[in-house]
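re: ur question from yesterday

yeah so i grabbed the chain u mentioned. its 157 aa long if i counted rite. heres the sequnce exactly as i have it in my notes:
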Amino acid sequence: MQIKLIAIGKTDNEKLQALIEDYQKRLSHYIKFEFNLIPDIKNVKHLSETQQKEKEGELILAQTQKNDVIILLDENGKQMDSVSFSGYLQKHMNSGIKTLTFVIGGPYGFSENLYKRANGKLGLSKMTFSHQMVRLFFIEQLYRGFTILRNEPYHHR
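ran it thru and got these C-alpha cells back, copy pasting raw so excuse formatting
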C-alpha cells in the first residue's frame, strides 16, 4: 500500500518544512509515502468561498486515481487516539487497497464534490490549527502509527 497526502498551498515556514521533511524521511522506512502540494489558486479575490472550494476540489481530484481510498482531514471527522489510528492504518493495509490518500483542504474546507467522492473523514482535534501545522502533525502521526504497529519505543503507552 502507498499513502499519499495532498495539501493546498506551500509551507512558508522553513523550520516547519524541515520538520515535515524529517518525518517524511522517517516514514519512508515503513511505507511508500508521497506528499503532493497543490499551489494556491491565483486571484481568489474574485471568487466566492464556494467557487474557491470547487476549484481546489478539482485540483485535488486530479491528483487522485479512481481506486484511491480518499480520507478528508476535516474538523468534523472521526477523532481517535494514536493507538486507534495505528489500527486504522493496519485495517487499510489489510484490506488490499493500493493507495490511501489523505487530503488537507484549503482555508474554507472542501467542495461538495470532494465530500461526495471521499471514503471518510478524520479530525485531528477539536482545536483549530493552521494548514501548515496540520501537515506536520499529520505526518508525525503517520510515523507514530507505524512505530506503534512495529512495537518500537517512539510511542510510550
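noticed a couple things. The first helix runs from residue 14 to 27. also The radius of gyration is 15 Å.
anyway ttyl
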